[in-house]
Amino acid sequence: DVKVTQSSRYLVKRTGEKVFLECVQDMDHENMFWYRQDPGLGLRLIYFSYDVKMKEKGDIPEGYSVSREKKERFSLILESASTNQTSMYLCASSSRRGGAFFGQGTRLTVV
Amino acid sequence: DAKTTQPTSMDCAEGRAANLPCNHSTISGNEYVYWYRQIHSQGPQYIIHGLKNNETNEMASLIITEDRKSSTLILPHATLRDTAVYYCIVSRGKLIFGQGTELSVKP
Predict the structure, then answer these.
(1) Which residues 5-44 of chain A have a CB within 8 Å of chain B?
(2) How wide is the angle at C-alpha B34 spanned by C-alphas B32 and B35, nearest 5°?
(3) Nearest by CB to B93, which of A31, A59, A90?
(4) B96·A96 Cβ contact <8 A
(5) CA-to-CA distance for B41 and B38, rounded, in angstroms?
(6) Exposure of B26 in the CB half-sphere (CA atoms within 13 A)
(7) What is the tens place of the pLDDT at every residue in B55-98?
(8) Helix, strand, or coil (residue A49)
């Protein structure tokens, strides 16, 4: 079974903190994705990585950065967390042309 | 990546086939058609994908027209647990989710 694991299910951080969300996949997938999901706004792509050290901005990259130093791990970084980054964050991975598999999500609250 | 158009919502009777359409008239030759669904409060689930041939797996069938400008996802015997938002995405790899079709399966 494909496994995409996100490091936390729930996270509470303070405004201004640097936040790291980690995602690990065990299927040797080339592609990895970070999304956020908010009520009424659907699933929005933050960043996409198609190979180690390669990344592409999604629809809403502002306030976020990513790191992909190893194929299996894709990190989302909130440089200075703000309350409008309170959301459900979902990581996914896929092979080059295959279907994507999602992690269980991290519900981040910034206070 | 090509844009897709899906109906906002559809109903289906339990036990009947659910046919979910998707238009993607600007699809290019190397773009695949992917289908996902999201059941309330869960993460999206991959269903099926194809390039030009029809595809079938244990969950669904995907019918792609010969000109590849539209496709239909078929759930052959819909159950109440198939109630979800269904997303059709056309892509070479980067997945952008639209608004999808909210399918309600009714008893």
Answers:
(1) 31, 33, 35, 42-44
(2) 165
(3) A31
(4) no
(5) 8
(6) 7
(7) 999 999 999 999 999 999 999 999 999 999 999 999 988 999 99
(8) strand
